[in-house]
# Entry
Amino acid sequence: MTGHELVARVRDARERSDAIILRVCGACENKCCQQMTMMGTQDLRRLIREMQLDEQFERRVREGLFEVAERLDTDLRVLAEVTELLAVSSGSSRPGELADLQRSVGEWADFVRWLRSDFPITQQEMRRLVMFSAVRSNALNALSRFPGGLGALVNLSGNKASFQFRGRRIAPPPCLFFLDDSGCICDQAKPAKCANFFCAGVPNLLEDLRKSLGFDDFVLANMTPVGIDRILRMIELERDLGPQYIEPKIVLGASEEMIDLIARRMGHSGEMVRLKRIERPGLRSAAEVEGELKTIPPGTGLIEVFPAIDGNTLYELALALDRIRLRDEHPSYVLTATHLLTTPAAHPLWDDRMMAQPLGVLDLLVIEE
Ligand code: SF4
Ligand code: SF4
# Structure
């Protein structure tokens, strides 16, 4: 399968997968998106890359964060109100605790101001998104040192702010990137844990995907149709942003001409490019692939060209690339194949009751012309 047929099949698999996610996520008892953010530094780099790559996406993220700022501002007002009440009632009896609380309120206000600003899309600026959970938790800790402080916060919250008790503690807030009306702001740049369907819920998302899609369509549902221009810009941008932004890529449906363009773009960015043609692909184990990618010297890019590849080989490769990602390594590696073959038998790890699948966060791209 290649060309239009491949892209149409990918689109169909993605639509079916999205419908399952919409039906199952949130019907479980866990509701991941309602429980704090899971974005780490590595995830943030993907978000930065996507925002820099795509103006429309950047605008959507900024608009989404603007709405988040409204939500956090409502919480902040309640927190500031409780802080003022405590300042009056405690007089000068707890100056240290009060100063800590006021400092936390100030940090929270700073963050809301920043969210509403036209901040530059850089790691240094945007790491504030990852740090906010610490700001929130510091504020609640500071407040908990005052007897009745958390109770007052929940009472004053009413229906407008988000503070509620879960047991004797304040319940975790929704993920910073979640909007009630439209869901995840990060979309294609979701953190790895979300993109890889980490799921321990009942009903279980992975079980439903497995039952409804089957192996080949699950692999296809994790691919993104993109034009060759976007792939070339991605390659260039990653190298401009720095080596820690480089992500290995799997590109299906690439013609010889496109492979040449990819190699040139890597070369333009200062890499020595090695093109390796694999005429008779056999299934390589994840360990073998990891070993091979480890030997790519710094400053060198490796492009492996397969005439065709099947879902099983892709899945095994994804396991290797996912482990490489977990070690925060960034080999300059592109695998291209013109055709996708039907998989004779699903990968064994697909059949296991895995809690996560490794495909979601990788750059699995299929070229649409
Ligand atoms: S990923 Fe799983 S646990 Fe999380 S909301 Fe979806 S079904 Fe629930
Ligand atoms: S990043 Fe997106 S998908 Fe992940 S928990 Fe937050 S809102 Fe949900």
Notes: Residues 31-194 form one domain. The mean pLDDT is 91.
